[in-house]
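DM between two lab members

TW: hey, do you still have the Glutamine--fructose-6-phosphate aminotransferase [isomerizing] entry open?
JB: yeah, one sec
JB: this one, 368 aa:
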Amino acid sequence: GEIEKSGYDHFMLKEIMEQPTSLSDSMRGRLLPEDPRVVLGGLHTVWDQLVDADRIIIAACGTSWHSALVGEYLIESFARIPVEVEYASEFRYRNPILRDGDVVVVISQSGETADTLAAVREARKKGVLCLGICNVVGSTIARETDAGVYLHAGPEIGVASTKAFTAQVTVLAMIALKLAENRTLSTGEMAHNLHALASIPDKVDEVLDMNDEIREMASVYRYASNFLYLGRGYNFPVALEGALKLKEISYIHAEGYPAAEMKHGPIALIDRFMPVVFIAMKDSTYDKVVSNIEEVVARDGSVIAITDEGNGELDKLCEYVLRIPKTEEFLSPLLTVVPLQLLSYHIAVMRGCHVDQPRNLAKSVTVE
Ligand code: G6P
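TW: and the structure you got?
JB:
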């Protein structure tokens, strides 16, 4: 009903707009930038085992799998522990090799996804510590894992996951930063990174202020039948997530790729009918991404770029440039994904799609 949607037309839009609050809720009581440290009560009993892990395997499906990919970059860079990301469905049917020193982490908004639950059971059967990152309190996965962290993002009703993704990335960032304690970060660096994370909700709020601009962009691109999303490093999983959001709710075919892989295939698809969304933040990969943009423009592709506030360098090359607040590179997925959520939302609405309940999809898939 209208009341639950708090005046928004769809749950999806409400949930996108709620992200400054849901992210603050995910961090509340856990992020202590003044100390500086991270407190994750749910992992207290297993923390020593996690810190000493030789390898972490993250298993998930759908959007949760995309946050797992961000988690791989976060944990490898801050904790220097090797991470492997698995589709839960593939992991469980492969008779995976699990050894002493391995830790399995599953990510599931609903805590009920059958494939992800099967991965939990497989890990536990093999005697490996299994941790859960879930949103729904008391869900099956939350109950069957040895320990875990709740998102505290509040109920997510829209089938296309939005606020759960950003909360998952936030929880993974907190885990990675906690693992970095006495390891890769000085006290000063830790304080700096925790302050940066704490400032994310306000920055998400600024990105949400671009809603009208994004709606206008959507009206230009609503008739496209294909989209390509490209990003690198921390923003490669965001490219995948942007493409998934568009597919799920607008039924437009979209693919996400690591920007540098474009030359190995997707570039063949580019012509003037192919919109390409680039995540081009001024980070360690920026110059390379700009050359990818030039290659697309040279083939008449229409480019939408997401870049940092104050960056005017892309205006000449791109059809649209969305400028979002600066943050640390490792936190940028929390900001760059938001315009992509809004873009797919508006395109889907303009195409008359059932945004909250897209055809053929379910909020949680309890069959294998
Ligand atoms: C379904 C939903 C997706 C979700 C995926 C995993 O496919 O439509 O939005 O990302 O399941 O769900 P989970 O609850 O395990 O995160």
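TW: got it. The mean pLDDT is 96. The pocket of 6-O-phosphono-alpha-D-glucopyranose is lined by residues 61-64, 108-110, 113, 116, 159-161, 361, 363-365 (CB under 6 Å).
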